[in-house]
Amino acid sequence: MADKPTKGLADVVAASTALSDIDGKAGRLFYRGYDIHDLAGRATFEETAHLLQRGKLPDRAELGAYAAELVSGRELGALVSANIAEIAEKQKPMEALRSLVSLSGADDPDKDSITPDANLRKAARLTAQQPLLVARFHAARSGGSVPDPDPSRGIAANFLLQVTGRTPDPREVEIFDECLVLHADHTMNASTFAARVCAATLSDMHSAIVAAIGTLKGPLHGGANEQVMKTLESLTPGNVAQAVRDKLAAGEKIMGFGHRVYKTEDPRATHLRRMSAELAESSGDDTYYRMSKEMEEVVFETKGLYPNVDFFAASVYHYLGIPTDLFTPVFSISRMSGWTAHVIEQHADNRLIRPDSEYIGETDQKWKPIDER
Ligand code: COA
User: Fold this and answer.
1) Is the separation of the CB atoms in 94 and 328 below 8 Å?
2) Which residue, 313, 319, 334, 359, is the most exposed by fewest CB within 10 angstroms?
């Protein structure tokens, strides 16, 4: 007889990891022992991905080699290129990414291998290809083309260039790069857990990432940032407080608030709030920032809930010119670094992940032939 389950596996320790750690009471997050407050605005996304996937912050030579590997690995496979237009016509962004990553596995040179070396190479290729997949998907559905990436620039600069079609301001690149750093890894969140469950069957990295993308898509996880923007767009500066109180009184959840682990401010939200304020000022239109601040105050007063990573990310991405339905795909660009690192870690010390369940159905049922049911 199994024990009573913990609903939603809250507080269940499901894996050991050396990748990230959260102190939910103090509101702290660490990547491999580095405080997120020390990395944010200092480490680039490429340095952070190297830290997660390869175990250390790179020195200049290591970063140069990793960046070169990212550039040489970002070319999309033939199967992706042949199908992207039709996928972009029929699928929404996160569905399309799920399909495209699956197709990209077919053209990966290491597709039949899960050795540590093959996993490292695949992790770099997946990290390099994800921004290009999002940009190519967006171009395919809007009938445009994707500007060639600038090999001398990093993932953040090239992504903004390719999605907005304009050369981004250097400060915008720094801010977007910081967003990617903040979203890179987050212990046993739902999509990472999904990736690890898949990897633990000794399935391949692309399969694990497809599971993760399908899991990130939901509005209780990565899909929340898009929902936050939709909420902001549905409100007017004059009706924020009343509308939020009405929603809460009706038992609705306000997207971008609450967290399973943090019992205080999510440390990533601290940085994203600051970035939203800065971009609001430089854009000359602080409407969404002011509305966000008011929402934050009302939700805290009414429910005592703090904003999570998705709340201020919405206005930041909006100010950067990223289309709203690409907010969750942007999350996947960053989290790819963490997911792949978790697959590497899982394969390195594997045991099948197979929990038990509590049976709550009928018992002692008597078999009846079909005509007697
Ligand atoms: N708006 C309003 N109420 C919320 C809320 C929100 N965003 N988040 C949690 N609550 C309330 C719940 O209604 C519940 O209240 P109750 O005890 O009176 O029923 C209580 O807080 C606990 O919430 P619960 O959903 O059980 O917590 P959880 O740990 O299972 O869920 C989240 C965590 C993140 C899924 C949840 O906070 C949520 O749905 N947030 C909105 C979606 C979101 O922003 N997701 C991104 C997460 S980074």
Assistant:
1) yes
2) 359
pLDDT at 1 over 80: no
Same domain, 241 and 125: no
As a whole number, mean pLDDT of residues 69-94 equals 96
245 pocket-lining for ligand 1 (C-beta < 6 Å)? no
Residue to mutate, 9, 188, 220, ligand 1, most ligand atoms under 8 Å from C-beta? 220
Positive or negative, the CA dihedral 82, 84, 90, 95 is positive
| CA-258 nearest atom, ligand 1 | 37
pTM of the model: 0.96
Residue 310 annotated to the active site: yes
Do the domain assignments include residue 246? yes
**Where does the pLDDT of residue 43 fall: very low under 50, low under 70, confident under 90, or very high at 90 and above?**
very high
CB 140 within 8 Å of CB 109: no
**11: annotated active-site residue:** no
| Range of the structural domain that residue 88 is part of | 20-217+338-348
Whether 138 and 270 map to the same domain: the answer is: no
